[in-house]
Automatic annotation (TrEMBL):
Keywords: ATP-binding, Cytoplasm, Hydrolase, Magnesium, Metal-binding, Nucleotide-binding, tRNA processing
Species classification: Bacteria, Bacillati, Bacillota, Clostridia, Eubacteriales
UniProt-recorded Gene Ontology molecular function terms: ATP binding; hydrolase activity; metal ion binding
Domain of life, source organism: Bacteria
The protein, known as: tRNA threonylcarbamoyladenosine biosynthesis protein TsaE
Compartment(s): Cytoplasm
Amino acid sequence: MRIITRNDMETTSLGKEIGRLLKSNTSVYLIGEMASGKTQFSKGIAESLGLLDKFSSPTYTIINEYRNDHDTLYHMDAYRIEDISELDYIGFYDIYKNEKIIIEWADMIMSELDETGIIVDIKKDEQDFNKRVIDIKAFDDSVDIIKKLEEIYE
């Protein structure tokens, strides 16, 4: 599925829609170059779960945990992972597939990821700096997310 957003607000809104549809153990794999909108999209997911006030980029912490009375969300930035063995050190395997997790730069650790959840590939539009071309693919366990998004974005 392809969705084009015209600005940060629309990218965040798409993240919100997906956040509302996430099950308790769904993984969201974000792919995109630097400054493509991965963190902006993630903010939308956090906002939909009532976690925006605690939200910050995990660029230097590698992984952040957000909790409230209703939800837990993990937000990971795999860009700085230099060796796959670091995933064990940061506790990745303890939370992966057991909690909602957003993984920015997922392509950096794809060899460790199962075919579950959704892949969100965000690209900058070449003509319009504010526009994003967002391709979303769901694995079998998350196909219902795509079906619901198609209803919303038809």
